[in-house]
Amino acid sequence: YGTNVKIVGSIAALGSWSTDNGVLLSASQYTASNPLWSTTTFIAPGTSFEYKFIQVSSTGIVTWEGGSNRAYTVGTAVSLCSQLVSTSWQ
């Protein structure tokens, strides 16, 4: 409680690695048995990028998840449909 989670990454849609410009995730579906944070953003088909999750405390302290950067490529066969990406904090 009192912490925001964001996704930041190597493309403008994910803030270009700026913690201030990262995409805020919603905890609207979060429960103790299903700790789900989610967001929706548009990224063009075929785009490859790297990303990480961060926690931002109520006082502005940023904590990056551990491990290597994550990598993802949006499928080229998609147009205006969505892709669900599911992952866990490292």
Structural class: mainly beta
Q: Rough shape?
A: globular
Biggest beta sheet summary = 5 strands, antiparallel
Strand content: 25-35%
Q: How big is the Rg?
A: 13 Å
Straight-line N-to-C gap: 19 Å
Order of helices and strands: EEEEE
Helix content, binned percent: under 10%
Number of helical regions:
0
Unreliable stretches: none
What is the average of the pLDDT values?
87
Number of strands: 5
Polypeptide structure, described:
The chain has 90 residues and is mostly beta strands. Helix content is 0%, strand content 27%. It has no helices and 5 strands. Strands 1, 2, 3, 4 and 5 form a 5-stranded antiparallel β-sheet that branches. Strand 3 (48-56) and strand 4 (62-64) form a beta hairpin. The protein is globular and about 40 Å long. The mean pLDDT is 87.
In a nutshell, what does this entry contain?
With 90 residues, this protein is an all-beta fold.
Write the layout of secondary structure elements.
Blueprint: E1 4-9, E2 23-24, E3 48-56, E4 62-64, E5 70-73
Antiparallel strand pairs: 1-2, 1-3, 3-4, 3-5
Give structural attributes.
mainly beta, single chain, 90 residues, 5-stranded antiparallel sheet, 27% strand, globular
